[in-house]
Specification:
The chain is about 30% helix and about 35% strand. With about 230 residues, it is α/β, with parallel strands linked by helices. It has one domain: Vaccinia Virus protein VP39 (Rossmann fold, 3-Layer(aba) Sandwich), CATH 3.40.50. The strands form 2 sheets. It has a 7-stranded mixed β-sheet, sandwiched between helices. A 4-stranded antiparallel β-sheet has the order 1-2-3-4, with helices on one face. Helix 1 runs parallel beside helix 2. It is globular, with a radius of gyration of 17 Å.
Length: about 230
């Protein structure tokens, strides 16, 4: 007789600036996050998040990427792949808005991505990544943004400021010469690609699969400062 195991709610969190509740569920050995019944991410599907790291570091040149900011911890897969590609003397800031997400990564999710928060190169910053970028100038070799669903800003309406002209200008100013801005999105957005160009970036648009070789299409923009 086959035993059906129901999904289990293991944690909830409030998202600053949003009325909805972020929920963390478990079923068997896997976890996923939902908001308003919509699945945001899971431990089963993370290929495109890893590709975000690979495309960004490749574009910058791994040996040159000694200071990196990862916006959005999620389930730790982007951060883990960044760490695997960077030199031993690199420093990585991971900026996460929701403190419970950081705690879930420490308590529940760490084994799936190889416990990236235990890496001594990592500094965790609990804050709005738009605020962090606004206070930096010429600091980073690469900035990776996996915040919300991309420019669509599903989970938190305030996240769209990160993807508007002022937010892109702050991201550009935070980069060192030759630095790279890489952005993950759940879907295509021609208007956003045009906005990146207007902000002064040379943009490469990559269409990838959620599971690397299969699954829904995702979009990753890899942008470098023009001139």
């Amino acid at each position: 007789m086959r035993v059906v195991i129901a999904e289990q709610l293991v944690g909830t969190a409030r998202i600053p600036g949003h009325d909805a509740e972020l929920r963390c569920y478990r079923h068997d050995r896997d976890y996923w996050f939902r908001i308003d019944g919509i699945e945001l991410m899971s431990t089963r599907v993370h290929g495109s998040e890893e590709l975000l790291a690979e495309l960004a570091v490749q574009r910058r040149g791994g040996a040159l990427a000694t200071r990196v900011l990862v916006g959005g911890l999620g389930m730790g897969f982007t951060l883990a792949r960044v760490l695997a590609l960077l030199p031993a003397d690199a420093a990585v800031e991971v900026v996460e808005l929701v403190p419970e997400v950081v705690q879930w990564n420490r308590d529940l999710l760490g084994p799936f991505a190889g416990h990236p928060l235990r890496d001594p190169r990592v500094q965790v910053v609990v804050a709005d990544v738009a605020d962090v970028l606004a206070g930096k100038h010429g600091c980073y070799d690469a900035v990776l943004l996996d915040v919300d669903n991309g420019p669509e800003a599903l989970a938190r309406p305030g996240n769209d400021r990160l993807y508007r002209e002022r937010g892109l200008g702050a991201a550009k100013a935070s980069l060192r010469r030759g630095g790279v801005l890489a952005i993950w999105s759940a879907g295509e957005d021609p208007a956003f690609a045009a906005r990146l160009h207007r902000a002064g970036f040379v943009v490469a648009e990559h269409h990838v699969r959620a599971r690397r070789t299969k699954g829904p299409r995702r979009t990753i923009w890899v942008a470098t400062v023009r001139g």
